[in-house]
């Protein structure tokens, strides 16, 4: 089973066939299917469970940008890359939730690398474009892309144990403010580690994310976890894999040790929660 599952959406059959032929040469990319309209794509995505959708921005009927908004509203576990002839829809596509924007004259290896970057939680923009930030500044994505040029839209923060529930809640609240982000998922426990998935309101350079997290008062250490190639799945695991969210940029976070005063406050909080539970049980 290949790591990256791609679905193609374009109203031109010759384009779909050409892109499929290009991607079938890549060892880690599988084209799950294709269709000629965004309306059909919304239905087919639930069947094929792709990681990545390559979509034309302008098509008859519903356009790719409108479809991207619907994907985001439904929180479907896939990323949309615009593969288009349109050169003036970049800002609108990113606002809608696309995490890639490529022109159709792209070379095969460049397309494959862009797909891998998005699969790993990064943004992939044709290097001929300049990104305009919300405050009007320009952020340029240089070709090649080292860690200082990587732009991130989504990330997963792994909080190393132990970390009290109250501290995790406070940390999550601080993250939303520090990174201008929204918490979309939180799983785990205080004693075994917690993973917090965040979606940033605008694409942000990787170095800025590390810098802002490192300056948070509760953070002892923050480091990026390098992407690792996953081992092939056995047959019983394949159906489960489709339900898993796509990989994102992942950061390992160590919180500072709690002070005596804070530990006392947390203990009081746990005691009050325990007492409330007992009282509820008695009243029932």
Describe this entry's structure for a reader.
The protein contains nine helices and 13 strands. With 284 residues, it is an alpha/beta fold. A six-stranded parallel beta sheet has the order 2-1-3-4-5-6, with helices on both faces. Strands 10-11-9-13-12 form a five-stranded mixed beta sheet, with helices on one face.
Structural class: alpha/beta
Mean pLDDT over the full residue set: 78
Apparent shape: elongated
* Strand proportion: 25-35%
Low-confidence sequence ranges = 131-148, 229-247
List keywords for this structure.
single chain, 284 residues, alpha/beta, Rossmann fold, 9 helices, 27% strand
Please outline the helices and strands.
Blueprint: E1 4-9, H1 13-23, E2 29-35, H2 38-48, E3 52-55, H3 64-73, E4 79-84, H4 90-96, E5 100-103, H5 108-119, E6 124-125, E7 131-132, E8 138-139, E9 151-159, H6 165-179, E10 181-189, E11 193-205, H7 206-214, E12 219-225, H8 235-241, E13 249-255, H9 260-283
Parallel strand pairs: 1-2, 1-3, 3-4, 4-5, 5-6, 9-13
Antiparallel strand pairs: 7-8, 9-11, 10-11, 12-13
